[in-house]
Amino acid sequence: MPLLPSLGRAVGTGVKATRLLLRGSVRSGAWATRRVGTARAKGAANEIGMIRLFDLHALSSAGDALVAIGLAGTIFFNVPLGEARGKVALYLLITMIPFALLAPVVGPILDHFRHGRRYALALTFLGRAFLAYVLAGNLTDWVLYPAAFGVLALSRAYGVARSAAVPRLLPEGVGLSQVNARASVYGTFAGAVVAPIGLLAFKIGPEWSLRVSAVIFVVGVVIALRLPPRADSDPPEAVPHWWRTMLRLGRAEDRPLANRLVISTLLGSASLRLLYGFTLLFLAFVIAANQLDTTVLGHDIGRKAAIGVIGGALAVGTFLSTAAGTRLAIRRPLALQSAGLMVSAAAAVAATVFYSLLMVALFALITSIFSGISKLAVDASIQERVPERLRASAFAHSETVLMIAFVLGGGIGLLPLGGRTGVALAAILAIAGAIRAGLVAARLHSERLSGRVDAPAADSAEPKPDEKTPADPWPEAPTVPTRSRPNPGPRSRTSGPADGERNLDKTLVEPPSDGKRRFGRRKKTEMPPPPPPEPTTTEVKPEVKPDPALAPPGFHVYRPSSAGRPSTNGTNAPEEDA
User: How far apart are alpha carbons 549 and 165 in whole angstroms?
Assistant: First the structure.
């Protein structure tokens, strides 16, 4: 029976191959995990607080990616072009509503409870986990849009709280823009890792990707609570009322966006974000309407592949911007944004003149790169120039402005314009933004960033005029000397107040009379004799004798006046007659 031995050898070979495959998979997975952990620790400068913040951002990005995968097929796929425009417009409005609440509500609340920032971050993850689980069972009900709105709002609230916590956990030797870029790269990598898992779960059912995202958000709750306590701000001495914080009733310096560098940087980033939103939606609908030739190097790649090329250009540009930001120390954000808008305007003009898929994709790539770098510049400006008590509100306002710019650009992109006409309109917008950014950069050429945050100088380095400083409890204490040269001579006075305020020992060291130098010897200082004690006078009070008629029996034995008189044989001396 030669068949049985052959079958046994085949089974044995298969088992060995499977075992080797599993062993290789485990080893390669362990190697990849070690490499990712090493890169994460190096990017965070081995600071445990920043490492955990990177992990938190990775979990947030992964969970949001799975939610987007779960909702994408339900909202956008397999619909006609006209209906798709309406659904995209509805999605833009839904996206806009959370940002309308972000600046006046979420930002002030996070500023109000900034001494509990870890719990605020954990709450955003817990809320998203609950809403993702609710979405998993209600993809076709009326609950879909409110739950999606809640997930998006909590995701934006997380972004604001995380950006406000970065300066508290910033390691030494790393700039703010570099840390923000490294966190973005780490989050992008996490989203790319979980994307195949989400697609596989989506093949089983759209609700399964949402359930996996709920599990990831629950893990994020634990990581948020494990952040170091210094992620929380110091609690204020007097917490204002919540309504006063939300309405910003108080001093004029409590405006979140009052620094001119922050405002100018935000407007420059909004110009690039408007171009990004226009490019994303306009080109997708232009390709879908067959208004752009899909031929590349003599081959027609089709509409879906052309849309993939545009989407890939935007995604690659975003990744390149964050990758460049990990090494780029942003010092002059206005000059950087002005250069970015000029290059984008030149690319838009070239795409208008040489209207083709490759030129349009190049324009999308350049716009995406400089849009991402401008966002890093805005975050670094707010983290450095805005006081900590207003930092969350400043981030909420900046996110709202950038989202308004994105929605405005997307709304323009939804207009039924011709392909070349729309790209020419984008060129005009880019040129206008470049001119404005150039004028502002020339006017504020002296404004530069240091890459670090100085919390005491930003918050309360100098007391306000109405604040009282405590009095010095020891005004005559010796002060630390300020040396004008390395080794002061023997006649130099090193501490203490002026001569009129304090008696100093001015005896100088003299050389010995025998000619031999003895170090450490000095003449004996004659101390003045102590002053004689002042005579004290004792006031003698007259003795008060009670009335014999009113004195109780035995008073002559126990009264105090008899204590000081001599007695004989235990009896008191005879009293004097009254």
Answer: 88
Give per-residue pLDDT as tens, 366-395.
Answer: 999 999 888 888 888 888 888 777 777 788
**Burial environment of residue 359 by CB neighbours within 10 A (0 to 12, 13 to 18, 19 or more):** middle
Q: Domain range for residue 74?
A: 39-234
Question: Which residue carries 């890169």 as its tokens?
Answer: 39
DSSP E strand stretches across 28-153 = none
Quick one: which of 257, 246, 226, 238 has its CA closest to 395? 257
Q: Give the domain-ending residue among 454, 487, 502.
A: 454
Decide: helix, strand or coil at residue 513. Answer: coil
| 230 and 262 inside one domain | no
Q: Which two tokens stand for residue 284?
A: 């997708």
What pLDDT, in 10s, does the model give residues 407-441? 888 888 888 777 788 889 989 999 999 999 899 88
Task: Residue 167: name the closest of 117, 108, 237, 242 by CA.
Answer: 117
Q: Are 247 and 107 in contact (CB under 8 A)?
A: no
Average pLDDT, rounded, for the chain: 73
The residue ranges of the chain whose pLDDT is under 50 are 77-78, 237-243, 245-250, 252, 455-472, 475, 477, 484-485, 487-502, 504, 520, 562-564, 567-578
Residue 215 falls in which region: left (phi positive, over 0), alpha (psi -120 to 50) or beta: alpha
289 and 200 within one domain: no
In a domain, 244, yes or no: no
Question: Which residues fall within 8 angstroms of residue 248, CB to CB, at 6 or more apart?
Answer: 108, 254, 255
Q: How far apart are the first and last CA of the chain?
A: 149
**pTM over cut 0.90:** no
Q: Which residues have a Cβ under 8 Å from the Cβ of 186 and sit 6 or more positions away?
A: 40, 43, 54, 57, 58
Element (H, E) at 443: helix 419-443
Question: How far is Cα 496 from Cα 493, in angstroms, rounded to an integer?
Answer: 8
Contact 388, 458 (CB under 8 A): yes
Domain shared by 213 and 286, yes or no: no
Instruction: Please tell me the total count of domains within the chain.
Output: 2
Spatial separation of the C-alpha atoms in residues 56 and 50, rounded to whole Å:
10
Rounded to whole angstroms, the Cα distance separating 244 from 251 reads: 11
Residue 214 lies in a domain: yes
Q: Output the DSSP codes for 391-404.
A: HHHHHHHHHHHHHH
Secondary structure letter of residue 196 according to DSSP: H
